[in-house]
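B., you asked whether I could sanity-check this one before it goes into the benchmark set. Here's the sequence:
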Amino acid sequence: MIRKPALLLIPLLLAILVGGCTEKPPPAPKPSSPEVQRPPAKELVGRNILMIISPRDFRDEELFEPKRIFEEKGAKVVLASTQTGEARGMLGGTARPELRISKAKAEDYNAIVVVGGIGSREYLWNDKDLASLVTQAFQESRVVAAICLSPVVLARAGILKGRQATVFPTPEALEELENGGAIYVKQGVVVSGRGYNRQRSSKRPGLRPGHLPGAD
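And here's what the prediction gave me:
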């Protein structure tokens, strides 16, 4: 059974990324004073999270930062793509998906996160296996999240119909949300039922898990 409070961390983590969906992020400011490092809480122990990336031009920080935090909090993260082997991000980072999307089973994961970047349009928007995967996960009351341009994947899968959603606002992406029956909302993070989607990366320092509604 999926325990909802721990999975509320997903929209929180999507909200604290630094940078933009299609632009190189500015350098992070240096801290004015050293911070005391505390061991991370392990709210996600026993959770399995599948992160989906395109084999080329995924958005680096939309993968690496949430993955790091998920793992620090005890989750097991599995990477999947349209192919295994080295994948390269827009900013030059690399990752090695261990699983093809076609081989992934929704029942094996508490949550699925579809990472954005310009490669999402080329490799993920039309992927029928991915559409089937997120649809099954949604129907089984699992958490489904998408960042940047990747909410289009959810729209094309039909799981955003009649639901509020956001996306990186290119004309094509906005049209795809409309065609999928989504209600576009111009804001950073949208939580709708069991679906989370993130427009672009930015700092939202006041957001906490307790501020976010749980899954239906």
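One thing to flag: The radius of gyration is 16 Å. Otherwise nothing jumped out at me.
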